[in-house]
Amino acid sequence: MRLKGKLKAFEDYPLISADYERAAEYYNKCRKNGIQGSHIDFLICAVAKRNKMVIFTSDNDFRNYSGVMELKLHVPREFDQNIS
């Protein structure tokens, strides 16, 4: 329930037919390049691309996708391991 409350701070973006079509294109392009991914991941990529969004993720799959697609990924700062 706490996560649900926190997610209310973010705007919902409606999905349109073009998002599903672009997701399918991304799927085909990645498969052609030997990269597998989930349909949901490719839909996230399509919606992010249409809305000119940066994808915030710790999932390495998105780095693989970005090598084939023009995705903008958020790059988090590295944590300093020497901080006490």
Topology:
Layout (H helix, E strand, L loop, with lengths): L1 H6 L9 H16 L6 H12 L9 H7 L18
Helix pairs in contact: 2-3
Structure description:
The model has no long low-confidence stretch (mean pLDDT 89). The chain starts with a helix and ends in an 18-residue tail after the last helix. It is globular and about 40 Å long. It has four helices and no strands. Helix content is 49%, strand content 0%. The protein has helices at 2-7, 17-32, 39-50, 60-66. The longest helix has 16 residues, at 17-32. The chain is mainly α and 84 residues long. It has a single domain (12-84), classed as 5'-nuclease (Rossmann fold, 3-Layer(aba) Sandwich), CATH 3.40.50.1010.
Give short descriptive properties of this protein.
84 residues, 0% strand, 4 helices, Rossmann fold, mainly alpha
- CATH class reads Alpha Beta
Which whole number gives the mean pLDDT?
89
Structure class = mainly alpha
How many domain modules? 1
Rounded radius of gyration (Å): 15 Å
- Quote the distance from N terminus to C terminus: 33 Å
How much helix, percentage-wise, in residues?
40-55%
Number of strands: 0
Number of helices: 4
In short:
By secondary structure, the protein is mostly helical. It is built from four helices and no strands.
